[in-house]
Amino acid sequence: MLDNELDELLNSGENETPHAETQEQHKRKSLGRGLGALLGDDDLTADDVLLPTDSSAAHPADTEIFVNQIVAGKYQPRTEFDEEALNALSDSIKEKGILQPLLLRKQGDKYEIIAGERRWRAAQKAGLEKVPAIIKDMSDKEVLEVALVENLLRENLSAIEEAEGFQRLIDEFSHTQEALSQIVGKSRSHVANTLRLLVLPDSIKELIKEGKLSAGHARCLIGLENAEELAKAIIQKDLSVRQVEELVARLKDKKDKPEEKKPVKKNEDLETIERDLKKSLGLRIKITPSKQGGGKVVLQYASVAELDMIVDILENKRKNNLNTDNQPQTQIDATPAGSSEKFTIKIID
Questions:
Q1: In terms of domains, do 161 and 251 share one?
Q2: What is the chain's percent helix, strand, coil content, to nearest 5?
Q3: pLDDT, tens digit, for every residue of 44-95?
């Protein structure tokens, strides 16, 4: 059924540009309270910790910390780090150094990354012993909030990583969707729709993380039994979100409609019996076979008088049956031409 609907959709004359939807653009100024508010420092702006490494507008570091004293943040929502991009950043660091300090918090004898894990990883590749850092005293909740906002500002998170970050704030810190929307500067519906992606099969979530499937495409697949099959078709056919929405609507519409039962075709023997009965009884008769081997015999009438006649015939047959105790039931035999098989219509009380 999916192949048929795909063919119809692609041949419907809709010349929409194939899917090239990217993740939503996250503007710094739209992100709620901003990093300065989250960090409790009005003088520290988002640009202070998020500007590119080669920027000359760096916020002054508090100190320099040995690379081996730093550990990755346990609340880092980002799970995928592009190796090629890290190598490019490492080359830039070798040439110009780290102009933007890492944001850290003290954890025992180590420093945990709040923001700047890519710079830390690239610094290790570049062979640096120390990196500039800003040290902040922050709670786990604040660390996750900042890490989430930082990645959203950089547009580095996939929709699934974003959803997982939202879910952690809900599960671990009892955030509401409304609170999340204020933190990340997005509508509540955006937060809700992003969280819904987490119910998708793991294989589809992986496609989203890899950038092969957009969040818009994936939302169309939520709750579908054949979601994984559809996801493959979207990628293979390069369907737009609009085309996927139309395809899903068609499939749902067909599923909701009861399947039309095709009548079982009468064979020649049944057609012969039907004609013989019409002739012998003088009635309009319709025989409808079923797939199970049975069927229906319908006696039609055009007037009350004709109905009375049918009732009389059936009543006389019934009485004949009752008057012939231990005798075979009244029957009408019809033997189609060229056939040795006898077909019997029994009148049974």
A1: yes
A2: 50, 15, 35
A3: 444 444 444 444 444 566 789 999 999 988 877 777 777 888 888 899 999 8
Which residues partner with 9 through β-bridges?
A: none
* Domain edge (last residue) among 229, 256, 283: 256
Q: Is 249 in the same domain as 273?
A: no
- Would residue 262 count as lying in a domain? no
d(CA 118, CA 76): 11
Global pTM reads 0.53
Residues with catalytic function: 117
CA distances in angstroms from 326 to 140, 316, 320, 321, 330, listed in the order given: 92, 18, 12, 9, 12
The β-bridge relationship of strands 70-71 and 284-289 is unpaired
Same domain, 23 and 105: yes
Q: Which domain holds residue 50?
A: 2-256
Residue 150 to residue 49: CA distance in whole angstroms: 8
Q: How many structural domains are present in the chain?
A: 2
How far apart, in whole angstroms, are the C-alpha atoms of residue 284 and residue 274? 9
Asked whether 131 and 97 are in contact (CB, 8 A), the reply is no
